[in-house]
């Protein structure tokens, strides 16, 4: 048995994983990262539009601050998020953007003076302040009150990943590529590391560590069509699920992005609509103002996706061999803007559709895009059930997104969450020891080896590729944008049948080293368990909240369902997850549940909402008229971050205010 020890083990070399590794290495801790692929090929590179941070530099962002970003995030989550975490995130996001600038991210910058932008289908001229010249720019995104999304054209994820990976390289952080973690080593109370398989040699290696951080991204590939990379199959979530101890949170919360191209499902960034692009139907009619007259194309993603689907159901979609679609029109932005700020979109359209988006409309429809659910953690990123197990980014349910994520908050979460949780991981490693039990390690290695032996030497007949395809079709058909009881029950039943069949998997290729069929067989059973947590959670949640839209229960029910779904897997032979619920305490919320701002307000109110609103008003009044927003916030809902991240953020508006009073001369 080959055993490798490290202090901090990170599974996944995307932005979140690398940022945790950097935080560990900065403390002098021995750090190792495992990755299926070379780090710079991670799915983080696919993020296009930008990351949210309340810098408030551009004229359209003036007045933005942590309070506004926090409120947008909570409303965007449909009150499903952890408000403490949302506060931590909003406070630290500006610090992360500026740190990334220091690491070499070429943020798009502001040019002083007049510039032309498209707002609500009209070209308008805005005047950028002379003092803002050269500062980091921001674009508009859905569900936000201010222009807050910092960007590098439409290749933001690419720019960030290269800068962060280069930082990791400069710190000599080893990334063990072509390594797939397949089993967590644990004793029921403490995580000891993972058993990983080399995708090239087939060798099993035990990585033992004080802390193990899962940063493997989302589980979009349990669906047939997804904007996710093909490696985003939910195996990271399955690692935690199969412990029988660690729990997953809100797995039914799956986001569909409004504008993926038809038929391949590749994303066209929300920046297209943020910069002024329009959605049109088969008649060329701009339909979103009919449904959402205030936010139009820039409503939250879950809302836009549902409105698009409703419109196509009315027969307003464009017929195609791949089913109906709608049009995304960015021609009004002009060729210069498209070729400068949306050049990845232009290349995607040219290479996959054979069209020029500067003059042609883009065929789009909603497609699975993001997983709000994941490994349930506390505010420090650690699993409450399994000490030493951390998770960050899309793999985790930290939980700042609740039941719907705002565009730009995911890319931000990778680096902001990685920055915050990385410090807590380092604290944990410094404050805890690990007694290495080789017999425990050997038992997990042996169990995985037996699974591989059975697949190669056994007499199973089920084809892993066929099971996976059937699973993806079930999820697409029955657990999509709109959901209902009969279809969800059918999904659960059919997925259970597939899980039974997965016990009889067989391989045609008997190689033990580089064998894609073996890789698929090892993954598909784990993926089926993840799919069942999604379907079972959706079937049990009899309300509509954020991206979870039940046609048979259209109301958001704060009275009965203001909670977080927790899923665990009882034992290896079980066919269903065990569901329980973690209540959200309204009396601890800074922003009690209210009207989100879309459609009719049909929510069933929580009995404590009015009481909490009155309590907050009383707290604010007792502080007196001289209390600033920071003092008010701390009195209503105090939150904590590592000491180095506690200082307040300074903005251009602060500088200008000080300058006008003579306090600052520049």
Automatic annotation (TrEMBL):
GO terms for biological process: anaerobic respiration; electron transport chain. Residues 469-598 form the Fumarate reductase/succinate dehydrogenase flavoprotein-like C-terminal domain. It is found in: Cell inner membrane. NCBIfam families: PRK08626.1, sdhA_frdA_Gneg. Residues 639-666 are annotated as: Disordered. The keyword Lipid biosynthesis does not apply. This is Fumarate reductase flavoprotein subunit. Its EC number is 1.3.5.1. The active site is at residue 301. PROSITE patterns: FRD_SDH_FAD_BINDING (PS00504). InterPro entries: FAD-dep_OxRdtase_2_FAD-bd, FAD/NAD-bd_sf, FRD_SDH_FAD_BS, Fum_R/Succ_DH_flav-like_C_sf, Fum_Rdtase/Succ_DH_flav-like_C, SdhA/FrdA/AprA, Succ_DH/fumarate_Rdtase_cat_sf, Succ_Dhase_FrdA_Gneg. Belongs to the FAD-dependent oxidoreductase 2 family. FRD/SDH subfamily. The keyword Oxidoreductase applies. PANTHER family: FUMARATE REDUCTASE FLAVOPROTEIN SUBUNIT, SUCCINATE DEHYDROGENASE 2 FLAVOPROTEIN SUBUNIT. Its cofactor is FAD. Keywords: Cell inner membrane, Cell membrane, Electron transport, FAD, Flavoprotein, Membrane, Oxidoreductase, Transport. GO terms for molecular function: electron transfer activity; flavin adenine dinucleotide binding; succinate dehydrogenase (quinone) activity.
